[in-house]
Amino acid sequence: MSLVELIARADERGLAAGGLACLDRCVSLLGGDDEILRPLWAGLADGAEPEEWTTRLEQVRVKLQTDATDDTETTGEGGAEGEAVLLARRMLAAAPATRSAASVREWADACSVAALRIHRLLDASATGASSVDSFREGRTEGMPPLVEAELRRQTRVLELLAEHGAGGLRQAMAVSTEGRRVLRAVVSRRARGRA
Hints:
This protein is mainly alpha-helical. The protein contains nine helices and no strands.
């Protein structure tokens, strides 16, 4: 089943986890540590009321001091890294204050695209068109390795939640943690290459 189909079939918890996992893997681009999104994960796991999501999301935004403007000068970097930071900021800025099925579906879909684009931007082997739509629809020809790994993680998170509900959250977080480490290593390697 393609990623687009998995998102279309996911329930509210699966969608929220899918969007959160994408943001979690990219949070280091915003200066966040490994624990910054844990309150949001915990809220999904313990079945917290939607109002709790709102409160916890606002706390995360304050901690990250995210400026959601589209001004690339605020990223402090140019090129691929600057664009990747901007995409990560937009993911956080677009997180719905009210956790409803409709709002998290739109957010999860946008986060999926943004996370794949971030991985494509930072993949040194990526060539050709920058669109990730065909990959999300199941056509994988010419997919750069970093994008392929991110696509697998997104798919796995949605599958875990579909199969196990709240019981799949711990495994989904582990998938996300692995992806966060990979992206952090890629960004570090690119920085060393520029030095």
